[in-house]
Amino acid sequence: MESSDFQTQLQTEMLWRENEIRGLNNIIVQFANDATKNMVRRATICLLYAHVEGFVKFSFKLYIDAINSMELECNKVKSVLTAAVYYVDFMKMNNPDNKNKIFKRVLADDSHLHRIYRYEEFFERITDVLNQKIKIEDGYINTEGNVGKEVLQKLLYQVGLPHTLLDRVIGPLTRLMNKRNNIAHGTDKSLIDENEFNTFYKCCLDIMSELSRVLYLAYQNRDFLKQANV
């Protein structure tokens, strides 16, 4: 995928979300009744968070899919991405039911021996592993149902980028997430004043814009390659 195509897909996805958010905000300011404004703000906060989570899922998946499409060998990309390819293999390495066939019966409870066997089995294939074409599965990008500051930092780390890249804009995100959860679960009946709403509104737009910029530059500069660290 060309960098321009990658950017176009990000911008297209972000644009329709921004248009909906801005459109709702324009509706809110038209109401003269404070009670009506508060009611619409509460509903809009749920949508603001939904757009953050939706865009985060879309953009990170696009980044992974774009890397996959290049069919690079695992030894060419950052180690964390190679680890992502073999995440399932690492899970098997930690599976206590996977035991050395020679000692499976006579030393069935020797966890240390069977752990060594699993590690041996993996490293016997290490050359094949590093020469394998990168193919990261969809489940690797997981927002865990709640996109707060820590989840965004985790996702950046998982794709080989500095985890602090979005710190400038994600300050209010956890508050937005918690507010949305409490409203959605019917436990928050508080009024939402204009300043609080504007903070959440700006946070949503800023995160989508900054994440789009960060991932586009990372893809354009090939920050997923090992040589990017040099």
Distance between the termini: 24 Å
Cα shape: elongated
Number of alpha- plus pi-helical segments? 9
Mean pLDDT metric: 83
Uncertain segments of ≥5 residues (pLDDT<50)?
Answer: none
Largest sheet: none
Essential attributes:
230 residues; mainly alpha
Account of the 3D structure:
This protein has helices spanning 3-30, 34-69, 79-85, 87-93, 111-123, 126-131, 149-158, 173-184, 194-220. The chain is elongated. Helix 1 packs antiparallel against helix 2 (34-69), helix 2 (34-69) packs across helix 8 (173-184) and helix 2 runs parallel beside helix 9. The protein is built from nine helices and no strands. Helices cover 63% and strands 0% of the residues. The chain is mainly alpha-helical and 230 residues long. The longest helix has 36 residues, at 34-69.
Summarize the structure in short.
By secondary structure, the protein is mainly alpha-helical.
Any chance you could write out the topology, listing elements then pairs?
Elements (H helix, E strand, L loop, with lengths): L2 H28 L3 H36 L9 H7 L1 H7 L17 H13 L2 H6 L17 H10 L14 H12 L9 H27 L10
